[in-house]
Hints:
Blueprint: H1 2-26, E1 36-42, E2 45-49, E3 65-68, E4 71-78, E5 85-87, E6 94-97, E7 102-105, E8 111-114, E9 120-121, E10 127-128, E11 135-136, E12 145-150, E13 155-160, E14 167-171, E15 174-176, E16 184-187, E17 190-192, E18 201-203, E19 212-215, E20 217-219, H2 225-257
Antiparallel strand pairs: 1-4, 2-3, 5-20, 6-19, 7-8, 7-11, 9-10, 12-13, 13-14, 15-18, 16-17
Helix pairs in contact: 1-2
Amino acid sequence: MRSLYTAATGMVGMQLQIDTTSNNIANVNTIGYKKQRAEFADLFYQVAEYAGTATSANTISPTGIEVGLGVRPTAVTKMFSQGNFKETGNNLDLSITGNGFFQIQLPDGTTGYTRNGSFKLDNNGQMVNSDGYPLLPEIVIPEDATQIAVGTDGTVSVLQGGQTELNQIGQIDIANFINPAGLHSLGDNLYINTTASGDPVVGVPGLNGLGQVRQGFVEMSNVQLVEEMTDLITGQRAYEANSKAIQTSDAMLQTVNGLKR
């Protein structure tokens, strides 16, 4: 009975949707998090009669008979729409308005990418993320700095003790990709590039389609809780409906097994 296996694929698919939605809800307050969306496609069809089959000398079947065999997951797509901004007043909190990612040096020497601009200073005065991974290009704040200013173009300037003018000490460049959805998620708000995402295009914020840097703000998650709750409900009901299809198929088999001569 095909419906048993067809409904089973539906339950597996809806489980993936609920898992994806649950992860979105769990990260509703994660800085720089980008929501994910599960996508599906129908499986191939068992053909009992092809459309266009001759039904007489002068007529053909207009539709045919094709029975679908279920559904399969095809992708979990990252949605890189802009999240809301939250003002923090912290000079080390940065956000990107528009396209682009901050560059982070990972422990193995490779470069990771993030939308989370909540930076700190380590014991050497270097700007790092919450795990202590340094921002690229390297920015080191002098010990006697009394004020830190980051321009929308990524220039970093400081006011040092005894001085009245800001001195530029570095430049923050950001990276973008032709296909950000192809980035591989490492967790900890970090991505690495893949062949699907393409190589990073690094440049000065505000130029060549890159976003601008804003100081004193962080970008919150782009998850819309109302949408996620709706998706959670529809996923749950679809899961239940598929389980009902299995129960119905089981009742039909029970009826067949109860037939007597």
